[in-house]
Fold this protein.
Amino acid sequence: MKKKTRNSLKFSTHLFYSKNESWWLIGFSMLLAGGIIVEPQLICSALIKGQLSDMWLYWSAAIGSAFSVSFFAHLWQKIPVKTENEFLLFRFSGLGAKVLHQFRSLYLGVVVIPLIISFNVLAFSKILGSILNLELHQAILVLMLLLIILTFFNSLRTRLRMDFILCIIFIILFTIIILNLFYLTGGLTNLSNTVRSSKINFTIIPSIGSKTFNAFLVFISVQWWSANLLDYPDMNGQKLMASKNSENIVRSIFLPSLSIVLFRVLLFTLPFMAVVYGYTNNCSDSELAFTSLFTKTLPSWMLLFVLILFMIPFLSIVQNLQNWGGSLLVENFYKQFINPIADEKKLNKLGVLAMNYLIISASSIAFYSNSLVEITKYLLAITAGVGPVFMLRWYWWRINAWSQLSAMLAALIYPPLLDWLVDNNSTTHLLLIHLESKLGMEYYPIKLIVLTIIVCSTWLTVTFLTKPTDRLVLENFANTIKPGGFWKGFGSKSKSFSKARILAWLLQSANSFIVYFMFWNFLIGNYNVFIILLLIFCLSFFIAYKLIQKANNLYEMELLK
C-alpha cells in the first residue's frame, strides 16, 4: 500500500504533468502566463504610430478564447493521457497517428515554441536593457543565463504554485507603482484632461472604408478561428488535464479573469500616460518607448520594483512554455519513439536539457529580431487555416491524423512560398496589387485570407482521399469523451448542449469588446458610463459562467449514463 502511495506521489511530482490540482492554482497560472504585461507595450507602440486600432491583430484573439472556454475546456479533463500531445494517439490510429505525433512533437518543440519564447524574451529584453542601461544583445544574454539556471527548478506542479505566489506579488507591486505614477503625474483628472486635449489618434474602431477597418474586419471575422488553435492544444491543455473535474475547469478560467478586470483597466492607462505626457518622444524603438514612462517619472530606487513587475509574468510564460516544450521533446518524442523503457531519472535529466535547448534557441532568435509585431504575424501566418481542423477533430468523426498533419505542413510551407511568389513572380505581384486596390487592404490581411482558403482546401482534400480513423478507436474516443457533434454510428449519443455554449460564447465575446470601451470612458473621466459598462460586463460575465457551468454539469451527467 505504501509503495502504491509513493508511486502516486512520484506521478504527481513529475516534471511535465500532475493530477488533482486546485482550480485556483490552475486559474491564476493560466492568467499570469497569458502575456498580460506585453499588451501595454504593444499598445504604446500602436499609439506612437497613430494606429491604436492595429491592436485588433491581438485583441481579436479574445473571441477565440471565449470559444475555447465554451466548447473545449471541459473535454480535456476526461482525456486518459498524461500530456496533451498524447491526445493524438488516443484520437487517431495507425501510421498516421504515429507520424503526426512524432512530427508535432518536433515541430512544436524545435520550431514553434522557441519562436513564442523568443517573442517574450525580446519584449522583456527591451525593458531590461532600458532600465539597466544595457544593449539589447546584452539584455538577451543576461536573460538566457537566468532562465537556464531556473530551468533546474521547473516542473508543472512547482510552476502552478509559484505562479500563484508570483501573481499576488505582481498585483501588490503594480498597485504601489501605479499609485506613485498617478501621484507624480497629477492623477487621473490631469490624465483625462491631457487625453481629451491631445491630437493623437485614439480611435479603437477604425473609420469605415479605410484599409485599417478592412484589416479589422479580417481579424475579427477570420483570424480568430483560422490562425488560432482554439481547443487548448498547448500548455493550458496540460494544466486543464491536471484539474479535478470539469466544474473546476470552468472556475479556473472564469473567476481569476473576473478578479483581474479592474487591474487591466488600470494597466491600459500606462501606455496612454507614456504617450500623452511626451515621455516617448524621440524614442527610436516604439516597442521600447513604453519603459520611458517609468525611467523618466519614478525615483531610481523604484525602478527595481518596475523590473520585478515586468519580470514576474515574463518568467511565468517562458517557464510554462519551457515545460510544455520539454514534455513534447522528451515524453512525446524521445520516450515514444527512441527509448520507451527509459526510467524517470533519465527522462528528468533529458527534460532539463530539452528545456535549456528551448531557451538557447529562443534567445538566438530574439538576438536577430527587432520587432514583436513581425514575430506575431509570422506565427499567425504559419497557423492560418489550421484552426478548423483542431476544432473539428473533437466533434466530427471523419477528421483523421492525415487531416491534421496535412494542415500543419501546408500552413508551414505555403506562407514562405506565397511571399516568394509575390516578390519574384510578376503575375502574382500584379494580382496582389490588384487585390490590395480592389479590397482596400494591405498585404498581411490578404495573405491571411489566401492562406486560410488554400490550407483548408488542402486538409479537406486529404481528409476525403485518406481512410478514416479505425472504427474501434473512434468508438473508444466517442464513448470516453462523449463530446457531442457528428458521431452517429460510433456509440456516442451525447449532446454538446450547443445553445447554452453559443450564448455563453457570444456574451464573453461581447465582453471582450466592452473592456476597451469601459477603459476608454475610465480614461477620459466618464465615470458614470464606465460604471454602467462595468455592471453590464459583470452581469454578462456571470450569465456566461452559469451557462457554461450548467452545460458542463449536464455533460458530466451524460458521462455517467
The mean pLDDT is 87.
